[in-house]
Recover the amino acids of this structure.
């Protein structure tokens, strides 16, 4: 049955499937170029996981820990710049510290602050001091490692928007080129740091979801340089502020943004997209579609007909490793952070020690998980919850396959078992029984993510950054990976990978692919 | 700077590209789609399902229990509600009802869920439909297992005192049954306030649940000289009498009872985390709410409704929410809790003035900034323009 009332125009310049950060960044980029864009979001609000929820009358952040690539107002980094260029004005609050790192086995317990404007002396000093640096030599080594990260980071920012010859690249971006073939571990090892320092410097591994042996140095360098050199930020009204302001701005620029509508099919003929079909059979036409669903899903169930999916597209998705999902216990507590003894915005805690291989193996199972990141929202955003309360979350990132055997029968038990383990673990670390302070508790799992966003296997990190699927290789090979003309993908599953900042970058990249294809088609007389 | 030696370092980018190409070359070119996590999510949250009425029986003098069956019912937690979509005259309405059957009864060979509907004193549009016109074999669309009013073993005390009034007993019957049959590890004391013995609903079900872990205490507030049980309201003295050390209090009933009980619990200095209220429904008379401009209460306004590129204009009474105005013309928005809490009926106000009762204002901060409202708890105070979701038709 098709709709008798017309809710859609006959044709759009582009249709964006998915109104999360990547999809909205695509829509904004296309709309700024004067394109007539339709955004279809299946949920009843924008943002995907970049959202908040209300429990007991209190709004609580859904997933965001901290945004990278924002930077201060006077020297904005690329995501803040993009928002400003689009006319999206976010009330950014600076996160006061980088992180506290606690190792339950060695007793290491250190608070690391970020530098500003790309200066790494503060974090280098704090890490070196915690590792017993007496003569300043360790400080120098850590500083030079972070400065290497910084040079690689600067190169990545230039090279992601500029094409240049390999010779010029080697001349102008030598450190980027020379480290591109190595894992984070291989490069870090050349600095001859004590294990204690490496452990502290490894804390952010959870933000990219792979162990340092397998993680491209390039990715790690970007992470370290951005967070430790410039600090991080959160929106005053949670990530929903970012999502909603992007959606509203897209509408101001003429986009039609529809909630509660799911595109089931992407219509393709002779290797080129020509529209989408909704669940009720309504067909909407456009030669260009940005798809936020995982390519795994698009190439196996959304492309209509499936005979239009080239073998290469299936080989592409089958060569990928789906990234981690999340298990998060989010609580509204009935006292202030000070009274509860919570002094840090962000803590990485390895109760059984910093053996990343073991931790990562545990993440492939049903729990317990022995590496967690805890966030107390109020320490960056004092008005986040009513006076005398605070929001506290504890998160691990199990791999998607870890929950394959969880069924509707044992789901509640799995949630409870892991949540209780986390709460006990954090209560012992903080010296306060958190269980005696819970006003509200929400447990987010891979199943929750799959339910709310439709993400393949409930994964929040797209495809894993690995040495076999290296970001530099992704960039070099990307041109040959647009398997269907007029179709681009936007989401964590794209080149820049996971994180809310990279989601925006991925969305902009998808818009660029579409704009290039439009140009090519125009020249070909389509 | 060097990592190994110049040749190896400079060749790194080519090396990783070659590795990636090899990975691609060795991958299979057929579908390997496998997503058990999304399958579990769908089983837990199937959305709208078809519910067939299989049995209707009295549940006291003023209420009936309606049993629904479906080929597959999702798991729910005792205390949660379901919604039913009903076509009544020219309207299409959705209403929430607490589930009075137990979660374990959705498993078994003949899975079912039950609701118990009480005859309302007035204005019972949907209740009338269920009590007077519904018969076995009728089919409804609905969503099962919604809401946050349920016991949480991490958060709550092991002893729960339920404070129930009127039809607010239903979620506790579900909990009591689940405990009685060993499916929920919890001690429950139900303090059930009614005016007279005739007003008690689900009496037999409650009695059947009584055991060492479930205690049922009827409290009558009317003039009942023969009554030997507890009398009066759910007062602090009564609450204290039945509390036992660390206790959580779950409250479900009419609004007057909420306010009274809240004050009594405060007087007992019960910590906030031990008190849980079921969501407030809408006020029967919105004009009685605080700061409501009562001179407008009898007005009818023009509501311009935008859906995609389509526009239509309908009437909207000041005394009814926008969700109701849309239901009256069979243009329903998706609703669940009807209390302003769940936000599923979130719509955008483009223009015009409106009223939201503070207790029903469960909006996100940024939604308020951009004039998004929850249609179930937004009352027009002028002509308005709203944008609502495009309806999704069935296949």
């Amino acid at each position: 049955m098709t709709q008798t009332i017309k809710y859609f125009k006959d044709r759009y310049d582009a249709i964006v499937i998915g109104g999360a950060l990547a999809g909205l960044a695509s829509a904004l980029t296309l709309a700024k170029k004067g394109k007539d864009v339709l955004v279809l979001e299946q949920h009843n609000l924008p943002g995907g996981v970049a959202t908040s929820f209300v429990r007991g009358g209190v709004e609580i952040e859904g997933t965001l820990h901290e945004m990278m690539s924002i930077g201060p107002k006077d020297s904005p980094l690329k995501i803040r710049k993009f928002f400003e260029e689009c006319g999206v004005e976010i009330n950014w609050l600076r996160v006061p510290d980088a992180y506290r790192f606690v190792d339950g086995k060695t007793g290491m317990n250190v608070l690391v602050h970020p530098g500003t404007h790309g200066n790494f002396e503060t974090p280098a000093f704090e890490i070196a001091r915690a590792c017993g640096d007496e003569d300043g030599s360790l400080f120098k080594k850590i500083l030079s490692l972070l400065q290497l990260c910084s040079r690689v980071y600067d190169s990545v920012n230039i090279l992601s928007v500029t094409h240049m010859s390999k010779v010029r690249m080697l001349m102008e971006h030598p450190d980027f080129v020379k480290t591109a073939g190595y894992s984070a571990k291989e490069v870090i090892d050349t600095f001859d740091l004590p294990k204690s320092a490496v452990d502290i410097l490894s804390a952010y591994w959870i933000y990219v979801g792979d162990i340092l042996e397998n993680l491209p140095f390039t990715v790690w360098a970007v992470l370290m340089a951005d967070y430790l050199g410039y600090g991080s930020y959160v929106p005053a009204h949670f990530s929903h502020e970012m999502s909603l302001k992007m959606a509203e701005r897209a509408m101001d620029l003429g986009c039609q943004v529809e909630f509660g509508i799911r595109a089931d099919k992407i219509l393709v003929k002779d290797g080129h997209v020509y529209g989408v079909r909704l669940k009720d059979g309504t067909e909407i036409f456009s030669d260009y579609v940005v798809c936020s669903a995982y390519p795994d899903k698009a190439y196996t169930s959304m492309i209509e007909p499936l005979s239009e999916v080239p073998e290469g597209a299936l080989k592409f998705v089958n060569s990928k490793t789906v990234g981690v999902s999340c298990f998060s216990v989010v609580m509204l507590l009935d006292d202030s952070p000070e009274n509860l003894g919570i002094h840090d915005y962000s803590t990485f805690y390895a109760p059984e020690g910093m053996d990343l291989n073991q931790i990562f193996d545990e993440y492939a199972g049903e729990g317990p998980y022995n590496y967690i990141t805890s966030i107390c929202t109020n320490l960056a955003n004092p008005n986040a919850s009513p006076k005398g309360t605070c929001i506290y979350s504890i998160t691990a990132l199990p791999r998607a396959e870890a929950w394959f055997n969880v069924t509707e029968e044992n789901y509640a038990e799995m949630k409870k078992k892991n949540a209780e383990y986390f709460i006990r673990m954090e209560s012992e670390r903080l010296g306060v029984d958190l269980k005696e302070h819970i006003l509200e508790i929400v447990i987010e799992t891979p199943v929750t993510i799959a339910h709310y966003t439709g993400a393949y296997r409930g994964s929040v990190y797209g495809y894993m950054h690995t040495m076999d699927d290296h970001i530099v290789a992704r960039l070099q090979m990307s041109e040959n990976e647009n398997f269907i003309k007029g179709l681009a993908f936007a989401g964590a599953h794209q080149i820049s990978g996971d994180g809310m900042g990279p989601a925006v970058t991925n969305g902009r990249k998808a818009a660029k692919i579409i704009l290039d294809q439009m140009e090519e088609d125009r020249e070909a007389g389509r | 700077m060097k990592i190994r030696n110049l040749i190896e370092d400079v060749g790194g980018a080519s090396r990783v590209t070659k590795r990636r190409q090899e990975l691609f070359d060795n991958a299979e070119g057929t579908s390997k789609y496998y997503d058990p996590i999304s399958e579990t999510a769908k089983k837990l949250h199937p959305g709208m399902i078809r519910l067939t009425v299989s049995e209707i029986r009295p549940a006291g003098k003023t209420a009936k229990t309606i049993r629904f069956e479906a080929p597959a019912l999702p798991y729910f937690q005792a205390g949660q509600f379901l919604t039913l979509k009903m076509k009544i005259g020219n309207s299409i309405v959705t209403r929430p009802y607490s589930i009075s059957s137990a979660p374990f009864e959705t498993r078994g060979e003949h899975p079912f869920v039950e609701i118990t509907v009480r005859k309302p004193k007035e204005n019972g549009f949907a209740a009338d439909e269920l009590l007077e016109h519904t018969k076995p074999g009728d089919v409804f669309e609905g969503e099962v297992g919604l809401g946050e009013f349920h016991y949480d073993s991490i958060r709550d005390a092991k002893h729960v005192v339920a404070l129930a009034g009127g039809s607010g007993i239903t979620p506790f019957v579900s909990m009591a049954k689940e405990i009685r049959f060993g499916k929920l590890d919890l001690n429950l004391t139900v303090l059930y306030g009614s005016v007279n013995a005739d007003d008690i609903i689900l009496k037999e079900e409650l009695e059947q649940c009584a055991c060492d872990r479930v205690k049922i205490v009827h409290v009558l507030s009317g003039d009942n000289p023969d009554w030997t049980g507890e009398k009066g309201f759910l007062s602090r003295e009564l609450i204290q009498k039945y509390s036992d050390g660390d206790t959580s209090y779950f409250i479900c009933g009419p609004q007057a009872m909420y306010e009274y009980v809240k004050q009594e619990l405060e007087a007992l200095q019960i910590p906030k985390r031990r008190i849980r209220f079921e969501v407030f429904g809408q006020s029967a008379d919105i004009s009685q709410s605080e700061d409501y401009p009562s001179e407008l209460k009898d007005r009818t306004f023009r509501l311009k409704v935008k859906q995609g590129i389509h526009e239509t204009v309908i009437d909207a009474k000041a005394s009814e929410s926008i969700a109701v105005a849309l239901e009256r013309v069979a243009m329903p928005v998706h609703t669940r809790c009807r209390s302003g809490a769940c936000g599923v009926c979130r719509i955008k106000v483009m223009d015009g003035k409106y009223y939201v009762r503070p207790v029903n204002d469960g909006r996100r901060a940024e939604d308020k900034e951009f004039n998004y409202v929850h249609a179930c708890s937004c009352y027009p105070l002028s002509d308005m323009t709203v944008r609502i979701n495009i309806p999704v038709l069935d296949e």
Summary: The mean pLDDT of chain A is 96. Residues 322-453 of chain A form one domain.
